[in-house]
Amino acid sequence: VQLVESGGGSAQAGGSLRLSCAASGFTFDLYAMTWVRQAPGKGLEWVSGIESGGGRTYYADSVKGRFTISRDNAKNMLYLQMNTLNAEDTAMYYCARPTGRPYSLTYNYRGQGTQVTVSS
Q1: How far apart are CA 30 and CA 42, in angstroms?
Q2: pLDDT band per the 50, 70, 90 thresholds, residue 91
Q3: Distances (CA, A) of 61 to 29, 82, 89
Q4: What is the tens place of the pLDDT at every residue in 19-42?
Q5: How much is the average pLDDT of 47-56?
Q6: How far apart are CA 91 and CA 103, in angstroms?
Q7: CA distance linking residue 79 with residue 23, whole number of Å
Q8: Quick check: helix, strand or coil at residue 58?
Q9: Do residues 81 and 67 make contact, with C-beta atoms less than 8 angstroms apart?
C-alpha cells in the first residue's frame, strides 16, 4: 500500500489549497478514505472522510463548510479542497486508509504527509 500526498504549501488566510493523494497497492474503490492532520505541538486530528463509492462524506466541525473531500476511483485519487483557510488549519496533512468507518481517526495506512501553512 502506498499513499502519496501533494498540493500543500503556503497560503494566506482566506485563501485556498487543494490537496491530492495518489493511492496504489490496493483496490482503491473498495475502501473508505480519510484526511487527518497534525498541527505543531498537537495530536492527530481527523479532518474528513469519504465512503468507498464517494456517496457519503463526513467533516470535522472545524472544517465543515470550508473543506470538500472527493475521490476519483478511476484514477485512484483522493482530494481535499480547502477554502477560507485560517491559521488554525496550519498542519501536516495526511491521507489515510481507516481501519473502520470514514469518520474514524484510526487507520491501517497513512502517507508521508504534505505541509499546509496559513499566514494571517
Answers
A1: 31
A2: very high
A3: 26, 14, 13
A4: 999 999 999 999 999 999 999 999
A5: 95
A6: 19
A7: 11
A8: strand
A9: yes
Q: Do the Cβ atoms of 101 and 113 come closer than 8 Å?
A: no
C-alpha cell at 33: 478514505
Tell which phi-psi region holds residue 65, choosing left (phi > 0), alpha (psi between -120 and 50) or beta: left
Contact 96, 109 (CB under 8 A): yes
pLDDT for residue 100? 85
Question: Could you tell me the three cell numbers for 1?
Answer: 500500500
Cα three-residue angle 52-47-120, rounded to 5 degrees: 140
Please tell me the predicted confidence (pLDDT) of residue 45: 97
Q: HSE on the CB side for 76, CA within 13 Å? A: 12
| CA gap 63, 89 in Å, rounded | 9
Instruction: Give residue for cell 472522510.
Output: 49
